[in-house]
Each structure stands twice: as structure tokens, then as C-alpha cells.
Amino acid sequence: MLQAALLGAGRRGMFAYASYALKRPDEIQFVAVAEPDEERRQMFARQHGIPPERQFASWEELLAEPRLCEALLICTQDRMHFEPTMKALEMGYHILLEKPMSHDPLESILLAEEAERRQRILTICHVSRYDTYYSEVKALLDTGVIGRIMSIQWTENVGFWHHSHSFVRGNWRNSDETSAMILQKSCHDMDLLQWFVGEECTSVSSYGSLSYFRPENAPKGSTERCTSGCEVEHECSFSAIKHYYNEDDTGFPMAVCLTPTLEARLKAITEGPYGRCVFRCDNNVVDHQVVNLVFDNEATVSFTMSAFTTENTRTFKIMGTSGEIRGHHQNNEIEIRHFSGKTELIRPKRFEGGHGGADFLIMREFVRQVRRGDLNGKTPAAVSARSHIMAFAAEHSRLTGQTVNLNHYMAELKEGSSARG
Q1: How many angstroms from the chain centroid is the CA of residue 89?
Q2: Number of H helices, E strands in the chain
Q3: Domain 129-213+286-355+382-406: which topology?
Q4: Fewer CB atoms < 10 Å away: N or C end of the chain?
Q5: pTM for this structure?
Q6: pLDDT of the chain, 421 residues: tens digit per residue
């Protein structure tokens, strides 16, 4: 049985990944946890039977101990990935690291290089690769069912409610504290697009901005908080009362308050960050962005990320020399339209767990990967770093208005790596 420890018992770490051990206790056991929030730390310890001496208030405390187990799940906040991962690799841990690898492009490269140098597993949580839906799309493309890929139109429909929760009120609202939207939310998309095309991206351009969730767009009669007598709360689509004042013990209400009672939830939105008016937060990440990508096989990609959607899903059209594939992830539909006139509709098998079963499947594969001693797996750190660089280049283009040559950009980063020593 694989023994592991969790760094960061937040929503992803505790519920998406580590819960696998509760369903498959014969495969993996968590023997330690590091989490600054006492309520979350104790909840995780109770779930997994972790004794007090293996409960730590910080990752620094846990990694100050001699190596406790074989593997670590590092699910800390974005800007708390690099240091614990580098330290853990040095200590000989195999690691499953939540995305993004780092908020800094150079650090992302250094992590991949360090894992290779130490001959340790560093698997990045690009969970979409493990989703049976996208695995089916990849398998179809590899058979050449639509010929050579020429163009892709790809849309990440963030969903107005998801965006307001995570990227206006929530943990990833401010890139100065976490990372840019294109990296935090859309690194999955950059990874999938790179995987589907099967070649390296050579050029990136991007445009986007924070246009709506700003103080000047606050409606007349609104207040600092939804619970402060806001005159338009009943009509507001972003009302915290509508979204969080309920006893739902799953989804986003659990991020607001672990205790699923109305009293606890009301206190949370009255006093905490999730009760703020969406037009009066300290958010600075974009609410819409487009990215154009060119690959070295001449395939082109147009990617759109938007907060202003009713659905929270990805939709796409992949155009090849003999047909096209259209997809709607939420509907679990893959439609193949051949130029001959033949049409096929595929609905891939689903698995238990979040993200179309991908959260479950990445944990299953990580456990098997450690058992095999497979240093690469399905999402090797070097490949993940390359797709991260696509996101960093897109943000650089958005901010400067310049088209970024990815090879030149990578060379500059590596020069920085050499200078860093």
C-alpha cells in the first residue's frame, strides 16, 4: 500500500484527490497532513485517522521532519508550490502537484528539471488528460479519423456563477496573490490543445481584459455586501445569498463554510470574502480573453475564455483535411462529421468523481505510477511545463500587445535559469 501525505487540505486536496483513499483504502493511505486552517486540518485528520503528531500547521513543519512516506500531494495555493516541491524532491518524495506548477515561468521550468535530475515522479494535475471524454477525442485524432488537423476553435465557458465565485470573490481573484487567469484556469486548455495537436507551439498572441466586474459597473442601490441591505440583491444573478445561503454539502457552498447549516453560511457571507458585491472586490484577473496559437506543423488554434456564459463547460470544433470533430463536454457528446457525408455520435463512458471522473482516475494512475516507478506517466513535468509556458506567453502578449515567439521566449527563460544558477 502506498503511504502519502497531503500539503494543503483545501477543496481540491481534501475532496477531489485525497478522498480516493477513502474509497480505495487498500491502495493508498494518508499518514500526515499540513494545513494552516485548523478546522480543515482536523477534518482531514478525522477522515483519514491521522494522529496529532502527524498533523502540521504548515508545509514547512511537515518537511522539517525526516521523510514520512513515499509520496506527497501538494495542493497549496499557487504561490506556495515551488518551494515545498523543490524541498520534497530533494528529500526523495514522489509528488502529485496541483496546477499551476508555479506562478512564475522560470520556476515551472526549474521544477521539471529538478524532478528529472533527482529521478523523482512529478505529476502535474492536468486532470483533463485523464477524463475519458478527452481521452476519446485524443484517440480519435490519433487514428486520423479527420485527417491532418488544420484548425481548432476551442471555448472555455467558465460560467457566470463559477467566475464570480472563484475569480471575483474567491482565492484566484487577484493575480498579484495567485496567478493570471489564463494560467490558473486555462492551463488545462493549453495542455489539451498541445496534446491534441501533438506538436510544439511556436507562436502566441492574446487579447483580453477585466471589463465588467469593476466598481463603475455596480448597479444603483447596491452595497458593499449582499447582506447589507442591497436594494437589487433579489434581482442580481451574482447574489451571495442565492448561491451560498443553503445547506448544500457539496460544491461551492462548502468552500464558503464547511459547516452545512444556514446559520454558519449566513455568518460566512456576512463576514467573509464570499459575501462581497462582485463589483466591489479586489479582483484584477480578466473576465474574457482570446488566445491565438500556431504550432510547428502549421495547425492554428483560436481559444476563447469567457465568464459570460450560462454553462460551465468546454465546447470545440477540430477541423481536419477529411472531416471535423465537434464536442460539448457537459453533454458528453463527440460528433464526427466526415466530408463524405457520414456522421457519427460518440458518448464516452463516464467514471465516478469530479471532472468527468478525471479526479478519480488521476489518483488511480498516480498510485500505479509510483508502484511502477514510472517517472513520466501521462502528464510528465517537462510536458506540463511546456504547456504552462504557452499560458505565460499568452499573458505576456496580452499585457504587451506583442506576438510571442515561443522558442525565443523559452531561450530567454533558460538564460535566466542559468543566471539563477
Answers
A1: 22
A2: 15, 15
A3: Dihydrodipicolinate Reductase; domain 2 (3.30.360)
A4: C
A5: 0.93
A6: 999 999 999 989 999 999 999 999 999 999 999 999 999 999 999 999 999 999 999 999 999 999 999 999 999 999 999 999 999 999 999 999 999 999 999 999 999 999 999 999 999 999 999 999 999 999 999 999 999 999 999 999 999 999 999 999 999 999 999 999 999 999 999 999 999 999 999 999 999 999 999 999 999 999 999 999 999 999 999 999 999 998 776 677 777 888 888 999 999 999 999 999 999 999 999 999 999 999 999 999 999 999 999 999 999 999 999 999 999 999 999 999 999 999 999 999 988 777 778 999 999 999 999 999 999 888 889 999 999 999 999 999 999 999 999 999 988 887 765 655 5
* Residue in 324, 308, 111 with CA at minimum distance from that of residue 213: 308
- Provide the CATH number for the domain formed by 2-128 in this structure: 3.40.50.720
Asked if residues 384 and 391 have their Cβ atoms less than 8 Å apart, the reply is no
Each domain of the chain, given as residue ranges in start order, spans 2-128, 129-213+286-355+382-406, 216-275
